[in-house]
Amino acid sequence: MNFNLVYRLKSKSLWMDVVFYFLCALLIAVVFYYFLFLLKDYYQNQKIEEINKKIAVYGTQEQKNSEAKVFDYKKKIDDFTVIINNHKISSNIFTFIEENTLPTVWFSNFSMSESSNDLRLSGESNNMETLSHQISILENNKDYVSNINILNSQVGAGGTIRFVLNASLNPEIFKSKTVIQSNGN
Fold it and tell me: How many CB atoms are located within 10 Å of the residue 175 CB?
């Protein structure tokens, strides 16, 4: 029995020796390649520094100062571009109403919510047909008006129609520089 035990230990130690030496060789290879890549990285950084020095030689100090000014101006222009692109032109609403109102319709009250793009107009017209035609003109401006609701309409003294309407505006009306005049005017 003693012989069997010694044989088992020798056979297991042979495999253990093979695995041990394999792992040692693997560790040595990993350390070798680590230092190899570290050395290669060092030489590449040296080459990059040499190229940067060559690039720095080109151009005078005046040119470098001019380049810095150009980049500063570019940054300022980009900042103003963001501000201008986000700017809303509320006065376009007045131009839009003026250009799209019939001569026999007049508005007495005006309120606007720029955050929700809603416009509430109170006014009078000669008759119901004129009011209907006015609403039709506003509704046909699909570029600027998305929806119109009549909140109230009453026949006033002398047969005039008093009305309150609510218009949902497209955000494009605040961005556009010009407002298209309707064909119904």
Answer: 13
